[in-house]
Amino acid sequence: MTSPQPVAWDLSGFGDEIDPDPRLQIAVLKALGARHIEVRSVWGVNVVDLDDEQLASLAALLRDHEMTASAVASPIGKVDVSLDADLEVARLRRVIRVADALGTPNIRIFSFFRREGVPVESIRDDVLLRMRMLADEAERAGVTLLHENEKDIYGDTPERVLDLVESVGSSALRLAWDSANFVQVGVGSPHDDGYAMLRPHLDYLQVKDAVAATGEVVPAGQGDGQVLATLTALRDDGYTGFASLEPHLASAHELGGFSGPAAFGDAARAFADLISRIGVTTT
User: Fold this and answer.
1) Residue 1 lies in a domain
2) Beta strands in 54-183 (DSSP E)
3) Rounded Cα–Cα distance for residues 98 and 135 (Å)
4) Distance between CA atoms of 123 and 156, rounded to whole angstroms?
5) Which of 31, 108, 134, 218 is surrounded by the fewest CB atoms within 10 Å?
6) 3-state SS class at 192
7) 204 forms bridges with which residues in the sheet?
8) Mean pLDDT of 96-124
């Protein structure tokens, strides 16, 4: 009887959850065994606002430390759907410049907020129009848009995420899975309720968990996100992509979630414990 083939995923993490300084981001990630980084902001500057000099400096820093970018964690689509669609396409072009400079085809995006009191069903057509425009731009540039199921956007439940990716129908629009965000919008059992339907479109894993009763974000495996079940299913499905740590274990700042080096390390160790139980390693 042949033994099963070893399974290894590429460990990454949101560097700015560690510190604004990319040198410290890289140092902590490398200490945790990661050779990849997800770039959302550096020096307190969001990726969409990085100038050419900053980009060149960051790219050189990653090369010098033998780190590669797993994805650019852009803010594209994390705006109200009523805003001018062309403005978001223009912002995507700027982010594509960042992705090209950092040598990654992967760009995280979102599917738009709505004003308070606006029914989610009423924005569907506007969302799909905008997502199609973004996908067209991505197709032309040869990049992949990874939709994150952020809470309170159109695609925040498994059913609407599926509607989104199937309705747009672009090879340039794929999915990032985030268990914690599903918990925070009331999806009772993220793995049971959403994994099977979304797996054909899933290309990227973001690692965090949350407690249903409070919405508190916790290390993987310590909440209600069924993280271990999802990791096991990914292993069995032959997933070989990135697992990107996004712990959100301290107060959020204006650029997104934050953890700090110590809490980030706690999150990394919790994830390492989970995958060790199922025979998965990271590279």
Assistant:
1) no
2) 68-73, 106-109, 144-148, 173-178
3) 17
4) 13
5) 31
6) helix
7) 176
8) 98
Beta-carbon contacts of residue 254 (< 8 Å; ≥ 6 apart): none
Could you give the percent of the chain with pLDDT greater than 90?
92
- For the segment 178-211, what is each residue's pLDDT rounded down to a tens digit? 999 999 999 999 999 999 999 999 999 999 999 9
Return the pLDDT at 262. Answer: 87
pLDDT, tens digit, for every residue of 2-14? Answer: 446 789 999 999 9
Beta strands in 161-275 (DSSP E): 173-178, 202-207, 209-210, 217-218, 242-245, 250-253, 256-258
**Cα 105 to chain centroid, rounded:** 14
CA 183 to chain centre: 16
Q: Are strands 36-39 and 217-218 parallel, antiparallel or unpaired?
A: unpaired
Residue 2 domain-assigned (yes or no)? no
Domain count for the chain: 1
The two three-digit tokens of residue 168, written as one number? 């747009």
- Note whether 217 and 250 are within 8 A (CB): no
Phi, psi of 156 (to 5 degrees): -115, -5
Domain for residue 202, yes or no?
yes
Closest among 263, 221, 229, 264 to 244, alpha carbons compared:
264
- pTM value surpassing 0.90: yes
Please give the Cα distance from 74 to 95 (Å, whole number).
Answer: 7
Which run of H or of E encompasses 39?
strand 36-39
Residue 195 belongs to some domain of the structure: yes
What is the residue range of 156's domain?
7-282
Q: What is the mean pLDDT of residues 116-145?
A: 98
